[in-house]
Amino acid sequence: MQTFVSPKVDKVGIEDRVNRITKRSIKKKAKLEGLKMALNMVDLTTLEGMDTTNKVTQMCYKAQHLHDEFPNLPTVAAVCVYPNFVKIAVDALNGSGIKVASVATAFPSGHSSLDVKITDTKMAVDYGAHEVDMVISRGKFHMGDYNYVYDEIAAIKEACGKSVRLKVILETGELGNLDNVRLASDIAIAAGADFIKTSTGKIKPAATLPVTLVMLEAIKDHYYKTGEMIGMKPAGGISNAKLALHYLIMVKETLGVKWLDNHWFRFGASSLANDLLMQIMKQSTGAYQSANYFSKD
Asked: DSSP states of 228-276 as a string?
């Protein structure tokens, strides 16, 4: 049995850093590059009970054709779907270089047996998912059964195999405080997470700058100790380009430029893509475009 001890979080210090970051001004050229970088880090997502084959196919089309009238735009990083839609997405994105991610492990609640969670994961992997987004068992975490949380993450990582990357969703809005966010981050990293991710997007609050900064600090400490890079994905509640740029500043200043790549940093925010596109058009042409010029899905 392992004992998990994480450093206490300086809440005042975290909030002060975030406050200073959000007051930065960004020059026009840097802003345009940052907007394009953020667009290339977006995971387009549909995770609804009313999802259909046509909706998933349309989202995959959008992922490849964000705004055809404007050449040389980057694509998004990935699309994220339920396991039963993975094969449809893989076929639709064939040859595009865009990854297919799949939620698993009784998303979003995480309330199921380990056997069911492993089956869920293997289904996504067998259908061709490049990435799996799992949820931790928050109930077990709040009971103090940290070894259960660790063992479950390790088992799902093993089910992913060597070629499929695992994103571990902490659902930080249910963890209660920043100290718990840091502890859950450390457990997930120790158990083999390739990415740590804030939220499912199904509850509020979802991603916030203070929570993300705490998770970035956990990644930084792990990197200093081991030399191993871990990815980060804030998800939910990031709907405008200005906020996305604040996240990128925070990543650069906390982890460095190596993390400013969609292999190591993602946004789980489908609605963000359109605002980024609108702001890219504004920076490039000087004129605002209506949201009506961009598809919702």
From this structure: ---EEE-BSS--SHHHHHHHHHHHHHHH-GGG-STTTB-BB-HHHHHHH
133 assigned to active site: yes
Instruction: Clarify whether 140 is annotated catalytic.
Output: no
Rounded to the nearest angstrom, the gap between the alpha carbon of residue 80 and the centroid of all alpha carbons in its chain is: 10
Q: Cα(first)–Cα(last) distance of the chain, in Å? A: 46
The active-site residue, picked from 31, 120, 233, 275, is 233
Query: Catalytic residue at 11?
Result: no
- pLDDT tens sequence across 19-31: 999 998 888 889 9
The pLDDT of residue 290 is 67
Selected catalytic residue, list 31, 186, 197, 275? 197
Record the tokens describing residue 71, joined without a space: 């050449």
Q: What is the pLDDT of residues 62-110, one digit of tens each?
A: 999 987 777 788 999 999 999 999 999 999 999 999 999 999 999 999 9
Q: Mean pLDDT over residues 132-149, rounded?
A: 97
Where exactly are the structural domains of the chain?
11-293
pTM of the model: 0.95
How buried is 275 (Cβ within 10 angstroms: 0-12 exposed, 13-18 middle, 19+ buried)? buried
> What is d(CA 70, CA 249) in angstroms, rounded to the nearest whole number?
26
Of 43, 120, 133, 275, the active-site residue reads 133
Compute the average pLDDT of residues 140-164. 97
| pLDDT the model gives residue 54 | 97
Residue 286's contacts (CB-CB under 8 Å, 6 or more residues apart) are: none
Rounded to a whole number of angstroms, the CA Rg of the chain reads 19
**In the CATH scheme, what is the homologous superfamily, with its name and number, of domain 11-293?**
Aldolase class I (3.20.20.70)
